[in-house]
Design brief:
With 215 residues, this protein is α/β, with parallel strands linked by helices. It has a single domain (21-205), classed as Glycosyl transferase family 29 (sialyltransferase cstii, chain A), CATH 3.90.1480.20. 29% of the residues lie in helices and 12% in strands. It is built from seven helices and seven strands; from the N terminus they run βαββααβαβααβαβ. The protein has helices at residues 33-37, 69-75, 84-88, 112-119, 131-142, 153-164, 187-199; strands at 21-24, 41-45, 61-63, 91-94, 126-128, 172-175, 203-205. It has a seven-stranded parallel β-sheet with strand order 5-4-3-2-1-6-7, with helices on both faces. Helix 4 (112-119) links the parallel strand 4 (91-94) and strand 5. The chain is globular, with a radius of gyration of 17 Å.
Length: 215
């Protein structure tokens, strides 16, 4: 049975019922501003590469990784809430559930409490993806990779979106997914899952643009 995913069902940008939904990764070879901005709901990640230019200027949900050094860096930035993509977002997603205090020392790796304190003054909804979703994600990837898979934020959020949407909803439009980056994520397995869901008609994975050939 799928987990009880209530993501996006009570905020002003309801991605579960949106007629069209664009999920925008951060691969640099992405230039689809008009198509992305035309979507009813637009989900972006972290520093949102290309926002305001090649990938458009609208965002409804901004996913911010809440474990590790990136969130610590944001917390130390006094101007973080003034960033254009943060100011434009109607809601936020924290992809990792809050760790119990005893599991978060001696070195702090989970910054969920601090992230909530940072975002609370905006008055906008903050969604935290539950551990049940992580379990589902690991199970989906386990048959495609060795060991215990560590899903990427892009995979977790896209999975949550598909679970929240009805089967009659229009396919999710996925842009800017290069399936590359931190070597701890099972990129090949995640690409295969996207391909399977594209074949099933649940999402459309837009290819990255090829860089121009040198002259």
């Amino acid at each position: 049975m799928p987990p009880d995913i209530t993501l996006f069902r009570s905020d002003p940008a309801d991605a579960s019922a949106a007629a069209s939904l664009a999920v925008v990764g951060n691969a640099p070879q992405t230039s689809a501003a008009a198509a992305i901005d035309a979507a009813d709901c637009i989900v972006r990640f972290n520093n949102a590469a290309g926002f305001g230019a090649a990938t458009g200027s609208r965002v409804t949900h901004l996913a911010l990784v809440n474990r590790g050094g990136q969130m610590r860096e944001w917390l130390e930035d006094r101007h973080f809430l003034e960033r254009p993509v943060v100011r434009a977002a109607l809601a936020f997603i924290l992809p990792f559930p809050m760790l119990p205090a005893e599991q978060n020392r001696p070195e702090t790796i989970c910054w969920t409490r601090e992230a909530l304190d940072l975002l609370r003054p905006t008055g906008r909804p903050v969604h935290i993806l539950p551990e049940t979703l992580h379990e589902r994600a690991r199970a989906l990837l386990a048959s495609r990779t060795k060991g215990r898979p560590n899903p990427s934020t892009g995979f977790l959020v896209t999975l949550a979106l598909l679970l929240a949407r009805s089967h009659e909803a229009a396919p999710v439009q996925a842009y800017g997914f290069g399936f590359d980056g931190w070597p701890g994520h099972p990129w090949s397995a995640e690409r295969a899952w996207f391909t399977d869901n594209e074949a099933a008609g649940r999402l459309h994975l837009h290819p990255l643009e090829r860089p121009p050939c040198p002259r």
